[in-house]
Design brief:
Blueprint (H helix, E strand, L loop, with lengths): L5 E5 L3 H13 L3 E6 L2 H10 L4 E5 L1 E2 L2 E2 L1 H9 L4 E5 L13 E4 L4 H13 L1
Length: 117
């Protein structure tokens, strides 16, 4: 089910982005990005197609809500990665939360659930 799925990764911490890239590749996904800030991410959203997105909630102090809302409006399932707890009350309906730190099993579980909706 995950084989060949294009996943947009938006993560400002290089090591986490690299780890997530490896995890997704191991799951058979192709990675779009990773983008390290909103401008890079918005550029990718405007020029590529993705099946889902994993977006860090806080990108170097900039909240990623505008990007998340744009992705949801395009019909892209969004997984919001955060180290600040699992409160999704201010996120658009349908977003899933991926609490940091995460494991490959957790990423796979949340991604599968996200793509099944």
């Amino acid at each position: 089910m995950l084989e060949g799925k294009a996943i947009l990764v938006v993560e400002d911490e290089t090591m986490i982005a690299m780890m997530l890239d490896d995890l997704l590749t191991d799951l058979g996904c192709s990675v779009v990005g990773p983008a390290q800030n909103l401008a890079q991410a918005q550029g990718l959203v405007g020029t590529t197609t993705c099946d889902a997105a994993i977006v860090d909630l806080n990108l170097n102090g900039t909240m990623s809500h505008p990007l998340i809302e744009a992705l949801v409006e395009k019909g892209v399932p969004v997984i919001v990665a955060t180290g600040y707890g699992g409160d999704a009350s201010d996120l658009p309906s349908g977003c899933r939360v991926l609490a940091k730190p995460y494991t490959i099993q957790h990423v796979e579980q949340v991604l599968r659930a996200c793509l099944l909706d």
